[in-house]
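Contributing new records

If you add data, match the layout below exactly. Sequence lines come first and carry their own label; structure lines follow with theirs. Keep one chain per record. Anything else will be rejected by the validation script.
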Amino acid sequence: MRSKYFPIVALLFLTLSVSAQKLSRTEKKIVSSIEKNNDEAIDFLKKVVNINSGTLNSKGVKEVGMVFKDAFDNIGFETKWIEMPAEMGRAGHLFAETSGSKGKKLLLIGHLDTVFEENSPFQTFEMVNDSIAHAPGGNDMKGGDVIVLYALKALHDNGLLNNAQIIVAFTGDEESTGKPLDISRKDLIEAAQKSDIALGFETSTGFNYATVARRGASGWEVEVEGKRAHSSGIFSENTGAGAIFEMSRILHEFYTDVKGEDLLTFNPGILLGGTFVNYDPATGKGDAFGKSNVVAQKAIVKGGLRFISEEQKERARAKMREIVGNNLPKTSATVSFTDSYPAMQPTEGNLKLLGTLNEVSLDLGQGEVLAYDPGKRGAADVSFVAQYVDGLDGLGTMGSGAHTPEETVNLNTIEALTKRTAILIYRLINTN
């Protein structure tokens, strides 16, 4: 789905671009350090990929966090592991920080967890050819975490982090965010509130793209009650329409009356109806019992809503509530909503930051970097901080098949993307 305003974003970006400067002598030293350390970076990626860190594997998530903690300790960062309450069923987060007052204050965001739990058959890093590896979570997003680490290592090795404020936040539950959000994202938001810029290292959408906007995500659920009766009475004054007809009406009107706004989408992912319905939200499994000669008395549907602004989200919710309240005879219905990720809107500050990244890429001979269409991206941790700071996302590794047993990471691009990240950070921490 290509956003209607995407050409406008591209035009704004072009007007913000200025003639690029060449790499300085110091920046060339940074590049040399990254080249020298690239084999080590790939070995580090192999090591952390081969530790299972599915979101619900708290022990594994923390083990990966401790590997990164040691590495950040070795380059002069103050590190801490932030435990989550046991009842949340999530491991916690790794934060690493340098303190100072020079230039822009940066927040670098990654995550330690993957979608591949301990029972997944996809567990190990395996080379496909000389440049591509199958790697569970290698692309989404341990590769991005490694880019952050080795970009900062290159700056540290050249004595360039003195008096800079940089906070690295690697969450342990991005793939299945712990609830309540005011606990699981408290530390990330607090870090943003004392920063100027956030850079997210989620999977790259292409070597010459970066993300200036991401849609927010919300869950929704509709429950319908009808009158159980013999099917011969359906449509009668006494029996009414039944739960399944009412649910069908609601979903049809969602499709015809709510659909249409640019970048607004909603999807009914689970639907159950019959005489009796059971659903387990923990497993996503359910069952229904009914007969063709019995009018259904229960129906439920669960879905997701994607939006580009809080205002758009609330408009959609208001329309959905109105539709749900206009019931067929002898039925009733309720709709409820759960917040998950806020939206990251394409602000002027984000576009200016993209301009800076573009200059870096051109100076490195890597080509122009453009804004990626937000209609093609899901939600991510950067969205939680978007209201507080300017930001970019999609700065991580390249690959394919994320969230599937075919996930790959392109090892040949890690060095170039680490150079781009390191020079971007260097310029930002030396800009007032």
